[in-house]
Write a structure and sequence with these properties.
Elements (H helix, E strand, L loop, with lengths): L4 E6 L4 E8 L3 H13 L7 H17 L1 H12 L3 H24 L5 E4 L12 E7 L3 E4 L13 H9 L3 E4 L5 H17 L7 E4 L2 H9 L5 E5 L2 H13 L6 E4 L5 E4 L1 H20 L11 E5 L2 H15 L9 H15 L5 E4 L2 E2 L5 E2 L1 E6 L20 E7 L2 H8 L5 E7 L2 H4 L7 H9 L3 E6 L37 E7 L20 E3 L2 E2 L3
Parallel strand pairs: 3-20, 5-6, 5-8, 6-7, 8-9, 10-11, 10-17, 11-16, 15-16, 17-18
Antiparallel strand pairs: 1-2, 3-4, 4-19, 12-15, 13-14, 20-21
Helix pairs in contact: 1-7, 2-4, 2-6, 3-4, 3-6, 4-5, 9-10
Amino acid sequence: MAAAPVWSVDPRTGKRREQVAVEATADEVDTAVRAAHAARGALADRGARAALLRRAADLLDEAGATVIEAADAETALGPGRLTGELGRTTYQLRTFADLVDQGGFLDVRIDRPDPGLTPPRPDLRRYRIPLGPVAVYSASNFPLAFSVPGGDTASALAAGCPVVVKAHPDHPATSELCAALLRRAASDTGLPAGLLNLVHGFQAGIDLIRHPLIAAAGFTGSVRGGRALHDEAAARPHPIPFHGELGSLNPVVITEAAAEERAEQIGAGLAASMTLGVGQFCVKPGLVLVPRGEGGDRLLTSLTAAVSDTESGVLLDDRMRDAFLDGVRTRAALPDVEAPVTPGAGGEHTVSPGFLTVPAARLAADGPHDLLLQECFGPVTVLVRYADETEIGAVLARLPGNLTATLQLGEAEGAGADDGGRGARLLAEVTPLAGRVVVNGWPTGVAVAPAQHHGGPYPATTSTATSVGGTAVERWLRPVVYQDAPPALLPPELREDNPLGLPRRIDGRPEEA
């Protein structure tokens, strides 16, 4: 039986552009994983890893025009958006290279022996080591930053783990192009090309997560797909960590004071955030609690004008477009749901943005309106009109886990000077719901920074880790401690004279430089 072809498709027309590859067989997946496994030793050198990441960033920048053209042809995200995403991707690679150089991620801890303690303490020396080959499942909506050269790949390579990427079917040509650049970076820095491998096909993704040499996996996508792979990872004879980003509603609470003070500004900001990238951001605000009354009505008027002025756009593929249209239609048909701006089909291959409104009382108990508490991928959001703080709490209590939660507070609330401490109370109420809490801003836009956390309670993610920022590397490492090991046998990272110049904690305290 001939292998199924992998086609690059233009989402603006729905037409096939070119055949890029064929779907990988089980034997080809095995070959890719074994090549990655064989490359582990070459990645043991931190200097080589840092050089690899920097060279990959340089090659992506040099090929920027070609990469952006390929990605735009397959995703319709536009050159402007993709130029920014490429910059983010190369910045991530260089940031992880710096992190590798610094070595703090190894978390070196040395406790010297102390027989006078109860119980007596032996000589203990601990650091982190790479898990092994990592499976990375590319995202549809970020063909660069969350795909082949993206954060999962960069952080895994920084940890010393080879990678096998399962390409997303929405941008296979871009995936092949980026994989070739990363393999060239390996060759240019004296490392084996097998440290980065690419496979295509649905079954290949399943074969990959089941392969006994895969030590961990990273995923960005839907709840359904991510949960299926998570369960496969857990069902293996030897289960492995599965770090999945699945789905998020990203609730927003707008207080009455905030609406009264800056309704027009908030309405315009919400419109820009919910329609950014045609509503295809994982942190799109999908449920917004808005007060009833004059301030909330002004906000609604501002949002209506801004959304109405937003042009139709192309979603990543026809399947997502169909799901968006069906999801909007089903939600709009629920009792007491209104559509001040009706989202729907903008053309044969486009969708137009819009939003729905519903009274908060409809979400206070189980029922058909629970559908509004689920993510709808695309340019739509749901405004929940509430009467008081009790109704805010009732809605928040029914929400699943999220990547983000946002508060729009009045000036006094934000300064902690409001009567009753409403700002602090709401902050405490939304904190259990999300991994990132935004105040008087919007969740779209996830900065690459050491303090960043991109994750949240299930179903936002399947673990407590972040996929953005320096600590993302920790997903691909495990600690090991050596007790009373002879000094001559210790790895360089744990030797007393610290030949690698690593930051360390000695007897529980940071070592002075």
